[in-house]
């Protein structure tokens, strides 16, 4: 299958301003070296702002970031259920069964190294009508500190493995813990990938309280939301099961009560002009 087409990369307004500020500080240091504390302070403040932006998973300062489905998808009553860090042979099959029973589709941001270990399970995700997206090759916790080469290796190795195993090249990328730096946006654009984060997260890798997880996902639940959950690295609930397996059934019931239905990110982001293709991916 062909790779997604390259996306034109345009630096975000913040990055454009940052570049201009660096040039200005360099010129200022030459023309007025006695003011070096001012120029150094300006550069330090800019770097601090970029670092903070990288620590905020929903921030758009460093580039485009999908935190909600487009308005057209919200009008159709669509949301996107997304599952990270799998596949997990003890959890993912049960998640698939629950989704099947409710007639819902989801996007799985998989770690490619795990997909290689559980190729049959990854193909089962796709066979059941869901899509697998790129969540790096090995899920390094220090991903946000990597330079362009290290990030590119994690993205490309995962992209190659997922395309080879599932027959489809991912269209979306989610950074490890949602953390990133200014190098990521141009790398994704060159590979035709879109950064996707979420509208709400339940912290289901930290808490085993299913009611707390459910409450974080359903408070203010609305069409267009992107919900983050984990089928991999999930905390264990009071029953000893992965908390996602305890929270998912009432969540799916809540979707029905609100008249919402879950689609893959690719289907939710498709324009209205392509209804047949969107329906096939919904």
Features:
282 residues; alpha/beta; TIM Barrel; 12 helices; elongated
Please, how many domains?
Answer: 2
Contiguous runs where pLDDT drops below 50 for at least 5 residues: 272-279
Strand content: 5-15%
Rounded to the nearest angstrom, the distance between the terminal CA atoms is: 20 Å
CATH structural class of the largest domain: Alpha Beta
Tell me what the structure shows:
- The protein is α/β, with parallel strands linked by helices and 282 residues long.
- It has two domains: 42 residues; 211 residues, TIM Barrel, CATH 3.20.20.
- Strands 1, 2, 3, 6 and 7 form a five-stranded parallel beta sheet that branches. Strands 4-5 form a two-stranded parallel ribbon.
- The protein is elongated, with a radius of gyration of 20 Å.
- It starts with 12 loop residues before the first helix and ends with a helix.
- About 3% of the residues have low confidence.
Give the structure's gist in a few sentences.
46% of the residues lie in helices and 10% in strands. The chain has 282 residues and is of the alpha/beta class.
What is the topological layout?
Blueprint lengths: L12 H19 L4 H19 L16 H5 L2 E7 L7 H11 L3 E5 L1 H6 L1 H9 L3 E4 L13 H19 L5 E2 L10 H7 L3 E2 L14 H9 L7 E5 L12 H15 L3 E2 L2 H4 L6 H7 L1
Parallel strand pairs: 1-2, 1-6, 1-7, 2-3, 4-5
Helix pairs in contact: 1-2, 4-10, 9-10
């Amino acid at each position: 299958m062909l790779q997604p087409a390259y996306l034109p990369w345009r630096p975000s307004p913040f990055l454009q301003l940052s570049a201009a500020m660096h040039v200005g500080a360099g010129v200022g240091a030459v023309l007025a070296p006695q003011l070096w504390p001012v120029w150094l302070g300006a550069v330090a403040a800019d770097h601090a702002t970029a670092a903070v932006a990288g620590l905020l998973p929903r921030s758009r300062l460093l580039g485009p970031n999908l935190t909600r489905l487009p308005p057209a998808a919200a009008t159709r009553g669509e949301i996107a259920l997304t599952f990270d860090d799998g596949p997990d042979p003890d959890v993912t099959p049960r998640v698939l069964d629950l989704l099947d029973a409710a007639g819902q589709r989801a996007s799985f941001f998989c770690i490619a190294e795990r997909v290689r270990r559980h190729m049959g399970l990854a193909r089962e995700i796709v066979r059941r009508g869901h899509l697998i997206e790129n969540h790096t090759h090995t899920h390094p916790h220090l991903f946000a500190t990597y330079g362009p080469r290290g990030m590119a290796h994690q993205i490309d190795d995962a992209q190659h493995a997922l395309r080879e195993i599932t027959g489809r090249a991912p269209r979306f990328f989610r950074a490890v813990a949602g953390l990133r730096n200014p190098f990521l946006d141009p790398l994704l654009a060159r590979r035709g990938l879109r950064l996707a984060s979420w509208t709400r997260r339940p912290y289901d890798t930290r808490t085993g309280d299913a009611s707390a997880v459910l409450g974080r996902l359903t408070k203010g639940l609305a069409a267009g939301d992107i919900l983050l959950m984990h089928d991999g690295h999930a905390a264990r609930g009071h029953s000893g099961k992965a908390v996602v397996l305890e929270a998912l059934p009432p969540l799916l019931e809540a979707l029905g009560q609100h008249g919402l239905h879950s689609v893959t990110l690719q289907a939710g982001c498709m324009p209205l002009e392509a209804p047949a293709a969107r329906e096939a991916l919904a």
